[in-house]
Amino acid sequence: MTPYRDQFFLASCVQRGLLDEPSLADALDRFASSRQRSLVRTLVDSGWIAVAEFEDFRRRVEEYLATSEEEEFLALYRLAKGLSFPGLRDLKNPRVRRLLTDFIPRAEPRHRIHTVVSCEDNDYQYWQAELLAHSFFRSGMTGDLTLLVATEGAAPPTHDFSAEVVTTHRASPHPETGDDYAAYNKPASLLEWFSNHRVDAEQILILDPDCIFLRPVLSQSGIGYPRADSVHYMDTTNERGSRLIQKHCRTGSQYAFPAVIPVLIEADDLRMILPRWLEATEEIRNDPESRDLAGWVAEMWGYVIAAAESGLVHLPSRFSAAPMDATTDCPIIHYCFDVDYGEGGYHWGKRTYAPWSKPEPLPREANGAARALLEILEEKAARCDYMLLNEPPAVNS
User: Do 299 and 324 belong to one domain?
Assistant: First the structure.
């Protein structure tokens, strides 16, 4: 079954008295030390839950989902609310509550997703954050948008951002080692934000400044099951990835997933892994071999390691498209790569763009993602006459 169906099944078993809280807590401990991918399968195989009960449940849920036009998580959540599950409110064990939280009706509604972007207070990241904010409101994305702006001593930013701004202390250069690595700011800023602010959202969508929205992102993660895009250069099974996991992942290496931004994760899960995310990044950067293996994305390897050690099981997503992709079906475009057509032909890239100049027209053969990106950029540029630069801003990342 999928993770959502696993969660719903376990909540159902607890509610009906087929599985008590101490037994489930004990099973969680056994599951954490095993190599099984499904807690439900572990329970069934070990005889904690009858096979007939499990098969009957699976059949009924599949029949229900076949008649529902909603996305699976929302369909199961509505069913859970209809069944009410009052007994789940009395659960005391924090690990059991965390496992079943998705299907415990909330006492008060909260925004499901809070979008968070970490950036620095410079021209280069400012215009990207502004374009992202423009696309966020343009797309109809719900929930809050917060820019975590890293400044010297958490001083007020010099730029006038158009979204909610939380200033955080710059973590680069590293205060202890002097390592000048701007990506420290992401886990460090998120950790500072969680420590000093009340975060009400159920899920956090983590983006880089060089992302834009085409349409809203729907809630698709669950407790213990973040969603993230993956990419070849974060492969955890090749020689480089295996070496990094072997050297730095203390436990749970079977959960290592080649995650990249965008990441959609439950707020409680993110809060749990943030200290280790920053620590693992520091470990990688401080080890010469690992630093060379990880390169610029050492911070994302830090995330992969922290999530794996906490037993988080990533669900592969397709949140974003790259500028040279043909599809515009994804809700986000991540323009970390340039738009290029032919040697010596058309070129556009974030590192050479002078905001807010009008981009040159795309060639006829340009694909959907590139067109969508530059159309939104041109739309934003037409409204901005306060930051026209003769030269591209200095590239800090």
Answer: no
Q: Are strands 332-334 and 320-321 parallel, antiparallel or unpaired?
A: parallel
Q: What is the DSSP string of 239-269?
A: HHHHHHHHHH--S-GGG---EEEEEEEEHHH
- The answer to whether residues 122 and 190 belong to one domain is yes
H/E run at residue 286: helix 267-286
What is the number of residues in the chain?
A: 397
Q: Are residues 239 and 297 in the same domain?
A: yes
CA 145 to chain centre: 14
Residue pair 189/154 in contact (Cβ under 8 Å)? The answer is no
Tell me the two tokens of residue 145. Answer: 């948008």
Structural domain of 28 = 3-103
Nearest to 216 by CA among 282, 262, 269, 164: 262
* Cβ-Cβ contacts under 8 Å for 141 (sequence gap 6 or more): 113, 115, 213, 216, 217
- Tokens 């992709």 locate to 325
CATH of the domain at 241: 3.90.550
pTM of the predicted model, to two decimals?
0.73
Question: Which residue, among 333, 358, 349, has the nearest Cα to 393 in the 3D structure?
Answer: 349
**Confidence bin at 378 (pLDDT 50/70/90):** very high
Q: What is the dihedral of CA 356, 362, 367, 373, to 10 degrees?
A: 10
E strand residue ranges, the chain: 113-120, 145-151, 164-169, 203-207, 211-213, 227-230, 259-266, 315-316, 320-321, 332-334, 339-341, 346-348
pLDDT at residue 279 in the model: 97
Residues 288 and 145 in one domain: yes
- Whether the Cβ atoms of residue 42 and residue 27 lie closer than 8 Å to each other: yes
User: 234 and 300 in contact (C-beta within 8 Å)?
Assistant: yes
Rounded to whole angstroms, how far apart are CA atoms 284 and 281? 5
Residue 75 lies in a domain: yes
Q: What is the pLDDT of residues 96-141, one digit of tens each?
A: 666 665 555 443 344 589 999 999 989 999 999 999 999 999 998 9
DSSP assignment of 113-152 equals: EEEEEEEESSHHHHHHHHHHHHHHHHHT--S-EEEEEEEG
396 located within any domain: no
